[in-house]
């Protein structure tokens, strides 16, 4: 947040309703629930908590995510490389994160990254996902009849898939995890500043994590494989020169590390909760496995893993009758839009047979639409299908605790207790 914004005391109306509290019990159980009244009465409201306008209606979210000239993601000048790292890390690099650029500069790197998620690349990873899913379930069965699904299954399966995408050995997993964590903190520092010693620690992890990848990127540039690092290194611009420098590739890997992990792991765990609570819907997917992709989509619609997309107004604009000023922060409430009764019949019903299952905004829309969606979809469908095939009566514990990291912008589930009785070996 810049100084001018923190001292901006203009009155903002309408204000957030009292139930807009992402860490309340009701919102942790169902994030969409905190928008029900607002969407009808004040579909655009101001939240002091997140210092942002919040857009709640499907129509506004869909329309304005597709208008990057009105709502952009610029962090230019807002993320400063600390003095101790400027010799090692170019000060212009933070503004070259994919999530921090707007078209047209955003378009070529986005295209380069998307090449790594084309159908053949995903198909190649699917046997690996299935094999790892079964190995993790073997370990769960060997350990008893209950476990914490996040740490025993959703997190490790997702990390294993990511390492396959990058074609890196599992010994590198911790380094990639740390790189992803530091990356999200650096990105969010444009809104939530860091103090010492956190600032130096985070930047050291971020810079060293990327330097560690330089040699690997050089090797893949010289001897390309078919992994996403090689694919990014092989992309050429219109003049036939490499589209991305080694430093830019390392930074995009850092983004992939943070954007690709929690989103998919949380999705799988959310699927298990919905199916455990709606056994009729589980029975439909078991009887007709073609419905597993619909389970993925319906879960994403009801509970998007990324509950919002953040932007800044680049011009003055009126949205649903409310004046938004240039420079104001805006939070596109994906969890609200995907549950808007003006767009969906019975939006709170979990229905794996919806006619247009992919009609939701859980992967965003417009230029920043998630490039990893094909991988997230594939892993979640395989992962949860395999889980219920091996553990058909798997259930979430009746008294499962709402164990979330207390992050207002993205409350992240730490654990989920599940149990079963009759495994299939
Ligand atoms: C099912 C799981 C996933 C969900 C729900 C999800 C959701 C999202 C959303 C909503 C955005 C757009 C944010 C915005 O507009 O500001 C996004 C962007 C992004 N996602 Fe995903 N994602 C998932 C999986 C993945 C995976 C598996 C990867 C990579 C391995 C990935 C990589 C990215 C990247 C790099 C961006 C930034 C794109 C850009 O700024 O142009 N995501 N994701």
TrEMBL record:
Q: Name one Pfam family in it.
A: p450
Which keywords does the record carry?
Heme, Iron, Metal-binding, Monooxygenase, Oxidoreductase
Q: Which Gene3D superfamilies match?
A: Cytochrome P450 (1.10.630.10)
Q: Which InterPro entries match?
A: Cyt_P450, Cyt_P450_B, Cyt_P450_CS, Cyt_P450_sf
Q: Is Heme among this UniProt entry's keywords?
A: yes
Q: Which GO terms describe its molecular function?
A: heme binding; iron ion binding; monooxygenase activity; oxidoreductase activity, acting on paired donors, with incorporation or reduction of molecular oxygen
Q: Where is this region: Disordered?
A: 1-25
Q: Its family? A: Belongs to the cytochrome P450 family.
Quote the protein name from its UniProt record.
Putative cytochrome P450 hydroxylase
**Taxonomic source organism:** Rhodococcus wratislaviensis
């Amino acid at each position: 947040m810049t100084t001018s914004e923190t001292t901006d005391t203009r009155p903002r109306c309408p204000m957030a309703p009292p139930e807009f509290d992402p860490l309340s019990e009701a919102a942790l159980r169902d994030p969409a629930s905190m928008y029900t009244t607002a969407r009808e009465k004040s579909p655009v409201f101001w939240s002091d908590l997140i210092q942002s306008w919040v857009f709640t209606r499907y129509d506004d979210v869909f329309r304005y995510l597709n208008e990057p000239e009105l709502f952009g993601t610029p962090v230019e000048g807002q993320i400063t490389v600390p003095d101790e790292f400027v010799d090692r890390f170019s000060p212009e690099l933070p503004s070259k994160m994919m999530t921090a650029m707007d078209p047209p500069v955003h378009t070529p790197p986005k295209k380069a990254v998307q090449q790594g998620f084309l159908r053949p690349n995903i198909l190649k990873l699917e046997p690996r996902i299935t094999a790892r899913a079964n190995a993790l379930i073997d370990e769960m069965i060997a350990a008893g009849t209950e476990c914490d699904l996040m740490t025993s299954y959703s997190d490790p399966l997702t990390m294993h898939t990511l390492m396959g995408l990058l074609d890196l050995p599992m010994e590198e997993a911790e380094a990639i995890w740390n790189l992803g964590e530091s990356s999200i903190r650096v990105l969010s520092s444009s809104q939530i500043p860091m103090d010492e010693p956190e600032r130096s620690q985070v930047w050291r992890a971020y810079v060293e994590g990327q330097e560690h990848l330089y040699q690997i990127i050089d090797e893949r540039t010289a001897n390309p494989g078919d992994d996403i690092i090689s694919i990014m290194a092989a992309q050429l611009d219109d003049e036939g020169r490499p589209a991305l420098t080694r430093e830019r590739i390392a930074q995009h890997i850092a983004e992939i590390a943070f954007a690709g992990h929690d989103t998919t792991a949380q999705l799988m765990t959310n699927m298990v909760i919905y199916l455990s609570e709606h056994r009729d819907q589980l029975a439909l997917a078991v009887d007709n496995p073609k419905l597993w992709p619909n389970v993925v989509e319906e879960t994403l619609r009801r509970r998007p893993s990324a509950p919002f997309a953040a932007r800044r107004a680049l011009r003055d604009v009126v949205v649903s009758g409310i004046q938004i000023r240039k420079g104001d922060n805006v939070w596109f409430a994906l969890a609200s839009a995907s549950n808007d009764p003006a767009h969906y019949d019975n939006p709170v019903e979990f229905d794996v047979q919806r006619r247009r299952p992919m009609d939701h905004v859980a992967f965003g829309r417009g230029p920043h639409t998630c490039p990893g969606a094909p991988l997230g979809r594939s892993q979640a469908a395989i992962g949860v299908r395999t889980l219920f095939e091996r553990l058909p009566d798997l259930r979430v514990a009746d008294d499962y605790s709402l164990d979330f990291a207390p992050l207002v912008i993205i409350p992240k589930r730490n654990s989920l207790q599940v149990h079963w009785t009759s495994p299939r070996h």
